Amino acid sequence: MAAPAWRSLRRGTSGGVASLVELGERHGLDPADCLQGSGLRHSDLRVDGAVVLAEQELAVIANIVSLLNDPPGLGIEAGRMVNLGNLGIFVFAMLSSETLGDAVEVATRFASLTNTYSDLSVTYDESGSDVRLECSFGDVNDDVRPFILERDLTVIAGLVPMVLGDVVMPRVEAEVDRARGALLASVLPTEELVCDAGRTALVVPREWMSRGLPHADAETARRCIAQCEQQLEQRRLGARSLVWARLHGSDEPVQSLTRMAGELHVDRRTLQRRLAREGTTFRALLEESRRIRAAEALTDTDRPVAEIAAGLGYAETAAFTRAFTRWYGVTPTRYRARNA
Question: Which one of 16, 30, 52, 234 has the fewest CB atoms closer than 10 angstroms to its CB?
């Protein structure tokens, strides 16, 4: 199965993560706790235009959801904090489309330029009378899926009136329970919200696809789509960045090239060749990730050295101590005392 588009792209700038940290702070969380395990520090979020990877943002979301016990509506609050103006050329490409069908095509082609983790696709009901814009979250972990689904649908709720004007969608189906559905119903412009659905989808009559849009402009649309294509190409990640994101954005150590290749949906030898072309190896990236994460854990947490060693994939604490001493010139215990 091919990897979803968002996994192979730079996520965007640090502003999106800064917004998530702000959300955590509103609910009493410490920024350091929100960023734990993401490879990001609070100072990174103040660097204008700093690139953030999808895995890093997901790590921050997972922290916030876990620390706050995943309350219904948290994703809605996050969605309301998204500045739709920051979606840039993607929004203009949709607005200037000739018809709703054209705008939907833009959405499915370029959604990965936004902060969504959904793979969008268009399907037709068996009767042929309805069109479904399906949002697949199949590659998103269950622990963050409700939050992301709430956030994405809230952002869509903000986009609909911009593209279509003051309309109400006939039906929205969502993979949420009734508690979350009741909250989503208050923000979604729809006549009917179906909860506990097998897939998340916006359902409209087929004839809507030919409906003309109020801001349609063929030349503007052409230029915007060309810029979207250019941005998509610029944001594609190399093998090194993809491996680094998986190593540094997850609490579960990935210790073998074979497993890493499987997670990235590529052949082991293919990944090895791509890394070599970029002047590195999986082993070198794994060691660098361990070096950085070890220092972060010793400085930012009070976890025992043995627990840190195990979390980084070392079978024996002694092996971790030797590696750490080689990296920093002191033992983990002395490093922690020095940086307390």
Answer: 234
Q: pLDDT per position in the chain (340 positions), as tens?
A: 455 556 665 666 677 889 999 999 999 999 999 998 887 878 778 766 566 778 788 889 999 999 999 999 999 999 999 887 777 899 999 999 999 999 999 999 998 888 888 888 999 877 778 999 999 887 788 899 999 999 999 998 888 888 888 888 899 999 999 999 999 999 998 999 999 999 999 999 999 999 999 999 999 999 999 999 998 887 777 888 888 877 876 666 678 999 898 878 788 998 999 899 989 999 999 999 899 889 988 988 889 999 999 989 899 999 999 999 999 999 999 999 988 7
Beta bridge partners of 136: 119
Do 131 and 203 meet the contact criterion of CB atoms below 8 Å apart? yes
DSSP string, 112-153: GGTT--PEEEEEE-TTSSEEEEEEE-TTS-TTTHHHHHHHHH
The answer to whether 131 and 205 are in contact (CB under 8 A) is yes
- CA-to-CA distance for 232 and 112, rounded, in angstroms? 8
Q: Assess contact for 154 and 187: CB atoms under 8 A.
A: yes
Check the CA dihedral 28-30-34-37 and report its sign: negative
Task: List C-alpha distances in Å: 226 to 116, 163, 230, 236, 319.
Answer: 21, 19, 6, 16, 52
User: Which strand (E) or helix (H) includes residue 108?
Assistant: helix 100-110
Measured CA to CA, the distance from residue 89 to residue 68 in angstroms comes to 34
**Is the Cβ–Cβ distance between 169 and 34 less than 8 Å?**
no
Residue 125: name the closest of 92, 173, 158, 77 by CA.
173
Q: CA-based Rg of the chain, rounded to a whole angstrom?
A: 22
SS3 content of the chain, % helix, strand, coil (to 5): 55, 10, 30
Contact 70, 147 (CB under 8 A): yes
Query: Which tokens in the block code for residue 294?
Result: 């070890």
| CA atoms of 133 and 11, how far apart (whole Å) | 23
Q: How far from chain centre, in Å, is Cα 71?
A: 19
CB 120 within 8 A of CB 135: yes
